Amino acid sequence: MPLTSKLQLFLTFALTLSASLSHAAGFQRLNLPMDQNGPALQGGVWYPCADPVGEIKIGRAVIPGVLDCKMPDGRYPLIVMSHGSAGSFLSHHDTAAALADAGFVVAAINHVGDNAQDRSRQGYLSIFSTRPREMRRLLDYMTGTWPGKSQLVEDKAGFFGFSRGGYTGLVLAGAAPDFQAGLAICQDAPTLPMCRDIAAGRAPKQPYVHDARIQAAVIADPLNAFPGDSLKRVAIPIQLWASEQGGDGVSPASVDAVRQGLGAPPDYHVARGAGHFAFLAPCAPAQALALADICRDPPGFDRAAFHQDFNARTAAFFKARLQ
């Protein structure tokens, strides 16, 4: 076995072992005020905490953590997190907590007009321009205004993104989207405003929103809007995940096309037996009742068990590249 593979296996094992001995993640709510760059943004921050594990209830979600825990002394790399269409800053709360326990500060927001509470812009192409800009605002806030900014490692950040959030991360990493080539979701929903615009040749060219602060990214089941050489400018290390069954406009073939299009080969994984929503945090009972479509997994697939491995591999990837 190559040395790099042995190192990855060791890091994954070490992180899995440490998770059983871990403290809680600290958690605090995040509110970015409206400014000249856009509307107010709401979200949350997870960070290292030395207190015993507790529970925090937010809406239907129950997340492990300690509200407003004091962050231990030290310097921690920042990771920003982008949810999928109609998701929320809590969509990947277990992954965020695992990363906090591994020594990272993780910040996530609700994308305006494309979240669980507000879907007013979900079907419009404009959302693909505003998403990367909102993540840049989050990076600016965390490194410039957030009260704990002095404990962040300077000029070094990671990115975690799922579905449309994966698209967002690839744009920030240097990819140049081109919607005129079409979107897979338009085959099933041609009446969406974005699909009508694409069919009529009215798809605007999306602006290039690269952010050099992002130096590594974990991308799960990304929406692919990157034909031809659109991904060649992505030079940072990427860990790319694909669900075996896909869904919601994302297919295994479209994720494999991202893999092949990247300028450098990614650390590539396929979640066997998984559907698209398997990358979301395992659902609390109230969520499972209210959100069956995203909480139900294919027969034989254990989301909780998968996330133990997924979170450990995600943390190992970031630790090897940011710490």
| Quaternary structure type | single chain
Shape: globular
- Total strand segments: 11
Compute the number of structural domains: 1
Strand pairing plus helix content: what structural class? Answer: alpha/beta
The helicity comes to 25-40%
Mean pLDDT: 91
> Helix and strand string, N-terminal first?
HEEEEEEHEHEHHEEHEHHH
Arrangement of strands in the largest sheet: 5-1-2-7-6-8-9-10-11
Main pleated sheet: 9 strands, mixed
List low-pLDDT spans: 1-21
Rg over alpha carbons: 19 Å
Strand content: 15-25%
Helical stretch count? 9
Name of the top-level CATH class: Alpha Beta
CATH topology: Rossmann fold
Task: Describe the overall structure.
The chain is α/β, with parallel strands linked by helices and 323 residues long. The chain has a single domain (3-227, 305-322), classed as Rossmann fold, CATH 3.40.50. The chain contains nine helices and eleven strands. A nine-stranded mixed β-sheet has the order 5-1-2-7-6-8-9-10-11, with helices on both faces. 44% of the residues are buried. The model is unreliable at 1-21 (pLDDT under 50).
